[in-house]
Structure to design on (334 residues):
């Protein structure tokens, strides 16, 4: 007789089409009972189009019936809400006091760093009116789904991505939405996207301290927020504003990241502080938050982003950023 555990283990070989993660990783396996030579499995149909359901059922039967002493596998579907199936250990939001400082870039790099460290990672592009994550990752596939939920799209290195841009008929369609609708969309992302089991979900927020970060903090159980900024005269004031908002919502500021701190010119082996003196450490101290690191202006990185190949960026700076994040997250528990 096969044990329940053996059955669950065998189901790890059954992949969800279009996302290529197993039905176990997507948390679709609801119930397993094994008695004698008979095994019964109940799967959630959440996010699965009929063809995918059929395919998974056939595959699941096949792998279970290959187990020793199993003669008959019965696989059934049940309805479940995406929200109830998601098991995400850490939700980390990336915000900034002002636009264009590199939130999306930092969100992308953090996800890449964590994925490289072996974690299961997703990115939610919560910038409804200016989504840029799919472009950086070169993604255009349309997410599939059903009444129960929608499945993210998988990036080249295996990061789950969800963005309003993937759901629009054309990537260039502009969205003119009012605040409440944006809030609703973000909330809906929280309820309808089936992420499955993730170690980290990185949320790329729109700039500023308006509705979107508020909605996110109210409706997602976030572990904390990372604030991104660039060197400039008013940086401390702008960062403080963002940090105060997070703390007012009783959420943790996991740390701050300074982007575009300097440009390195190899010919003269010099760092040029293009936007003024770097104040990363100083700003972190001023707002009493950990300094997670600084990123230089790197034309190579800008090019990769434009080409949709951000995952090819392999500077050690990315690794360090990921390590710093893991450290602060684990230092504070959940
Ligand atoms: N360190 C960097 N080196 C090179 N290019 C960068 C760097 N940081 C950001 N960029 C480029 O600057 C642009 C803005 O970055 P990004 O989209 O990440 O900013 P953002 O804060 O998310 O903007 P928004 O407020 O519009 O959401 C992008 O084209 C990105 O490729
Ligand atoms: Mg952005």
């Amino acid at each position: 007789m096969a044990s329940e555990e053996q059955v669950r283990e065998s189901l790890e070989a059954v992949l969800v089409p279009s996302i290529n993660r197993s039905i176990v990783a997507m948390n679709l396996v609801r119930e397993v009972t094994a008695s004698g030579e008979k095994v019964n499995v109940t799967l959630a149909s959440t996010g699965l189009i009929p063809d995918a359901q059929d395919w998974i059922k056939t595959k699941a039967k096949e792998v279970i019936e290959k187990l020793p002493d199993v003669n008959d596998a019965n696989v059934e579907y049940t309805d479940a809400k995406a929200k109830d199936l998601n098991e995400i250990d850490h939700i980390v939001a990336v915000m900034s006091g002002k636009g264009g400082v590199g939130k999306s870039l930092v969100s992308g790099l953090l996800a890449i760093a964590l994925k490289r460290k072996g974690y299961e990672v997703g990115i939610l592009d919560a910038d409804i009116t200016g989504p840029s994550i799919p472009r950086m990752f070169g993604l255009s596939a349309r997410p599939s789904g059903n009444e129960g939920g929608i499945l993210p799209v998988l990036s080249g290195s295996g990061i789950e991505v969800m963005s309003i841009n993937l759901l629009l008929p054309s990537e260039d369609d502009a969205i003119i939405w009012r605040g409440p609708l944006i809030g609703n969309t973000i909330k809906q992302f929280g309820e309808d996207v089936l992420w499955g089991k993730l170690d980290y979900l990185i949320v790329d927020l729109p700039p500023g301290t308006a509705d979107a970060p508020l909605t996110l903090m109210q409706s997602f159980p976030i572990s904390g927020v990372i604030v991104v900024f660039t060197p400039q005269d008013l940086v401390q004031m702008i960062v403080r504003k963002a940090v105060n908002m997070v703390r007012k919502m009783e959420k943790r500021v996991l740390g701050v990241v300074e982007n575009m701190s300097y440009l390195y010119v190899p010919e003269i082996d010099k760092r040029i502080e293009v936007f003024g003196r770097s104040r990363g450490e100083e700003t972190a101290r001023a707002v009493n938050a950990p300094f997670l690191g600084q990123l230089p202006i790197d034309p190579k990185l800008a090019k990769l982003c434009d080409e949709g190949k951000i995952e090819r960026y392999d500077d050690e700076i990315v690794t360090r950023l990921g390590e710093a994040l893991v450290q602060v997250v684990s230092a504070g528990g959940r």
